[in-house]
Amino acid sequence: MIKTPYSQQTLPPDLPGDHSKRLKFITVVATLGGLLFGYDTGVINGALEPMKIDLGLDSFKQGLVVSILIFGAAIGALVAGKLADRFGRKSNMFLLAIIFIVSTTACALAPSWKFLAFARFILGFAVGGASVTVPIYLAELSPYEKRGSLVTQNELMIIVGQFSSFIINAIIFNIWGEHLFIWRYMLVVAVIPAIILLFGMHWMPKSPRWLVSQNRFNEALEVLKKVRNKRRALAEIEEINIITKQEGKSNLSGWKMFKTPWVRKLILIGCGLGFFQQLSGINSIMYYGTQVLQQAGLTNKVAIVANTFNGLFSLFGILVGLFLINKINRRKMLISGFVLTTLFHLLVGFSAALLPESTIKAYCIMIFIIGFVFSMQGTIGPLVWLLLAEIFPLKIRSFAVGFCVLVLWLSNACVAFFFPLMVEVFGISNSFFVFFGLGLIAIWFTFKMVPETRGKTLEEFEEEFKNKYSIIDKI
């Protein structure tokens, strides 16, 4: 049991019951947004080669078609964050499901690269919106004891989506590989989970914390009773209500949040987390893994099959992360993740620079890339999304997360756009040495700046952080 410093009440334990099963079902439906996020970002990896030939894409057009989804995601994250604060997390997910369906269909039917780029930009809006809305929705519905593992299930579904895209790409390529239009089949598959999400959200509850922020106290209590035992629901609603009233007296809203020093610090931390997660280079592998393996020395057909190991070990990594995330402090796990990924960057760089051209060199690079992907997806990947969903005050949570995810997606876009050019100009070895240098800075940033959130309610962390840094600012 935990005693909150501002309510002076003790939260009773969240004992197992029917509400636990209900929360698991809600998590499965909500994380279909994560599945779509993963599939739509990963599918381009295998679809790009036939798409390039079918639509006549040069290096610039390839980079634009890949990265424009990410620019759309950056805008979608910010706009969806604002909409989620105003209209609610559930309403946002309805809207996003519709955008997923329409834009995915448009991508699959695109008659030209310009139309495809526009459709992928709109699809990116949905991907960015889902990246903000789903983790917040889960964090606000979860008991603090299970928040880490439940929110991280969204990252699991992102990885499942990416892995599924690799598997589906490989199957379609090996069956219909001689047809240039196979990339259209690869893209359109994503319509199926989008339709399930659209209908599934009809039975999902609204976020109890968002309802309290709208002064809909009784509705919030009814939702909590569906996902907690009764005693815990009554105690928790009181805790949420107290901190929400305190926030109501503050000037926290929209862009005004930058005027509050302790909130500015949180935003700096959130933006830094998003920046360094993406500058680890994970999406250079998720988007261009097949091309990297080809340049390392594998044939096209072997590379597209070998790339599925990146998806498989992403899945293994997130499963290990799910097992550990409620057992190890967030900071310790995050620092360990950056140390491991930085080490694998160095190994890939040395392998590409020092080993003679051979099959052995290609497989060494592949093994070290797999090690990097496993380490990344077991630590940094889920932890950044979890921390973003945990650290911000309720009143501005979606908008603040949206702003930080805007930085994350813009960083992602830079990697997606410049990585092919960087490899072409500098080679694989020097490209990964750049990631190594950025990894060292990330380790320093995490050690110096990132707070611990494990074992605390969202309200308790907010009060603790505010009190600590408000005092420092006054000094």
Write structural notes for this entry.
Helix content is 80%, strand content 1%. It has 475 residues and is mainly alpha-helical. Helix 2 runs antiparallel to helix 6, helix 6 runs antiparallel to helix 7 and helix 13 runs antiparallel to helix 19.
Write the layout of secondary structure elements.
Layout: E1 2-3, E2 10-11, H1 18-30, H2 32-42, H3 44-55, H4 59-87, H5 89-108, H6 113-141, H7 147-176, H8 182-188, H9 191-200, H10 208-213, H11 217-227, H12 230-248, H13 261-278, H14 282-296, H15 300-306, H16 308-324, H17 330-354, H18 359-378, H19 380-391, H20 397-449, H21 458-474
Antiparallel strand pairs: 1-2
Helix pairs in contact: 1-7, 2-6, 2-7, 2-9, 3-8, 4-5, 4-6, 4-20, 5-6, 5-8, 5-9, 6-7, 6-19, 6-20, 7-8, 7-16, 7-19, 11-12, 13-19, 13-20, 14-15, 14-18, 14-20, 16-18, 17-18, 17-19, 17-20
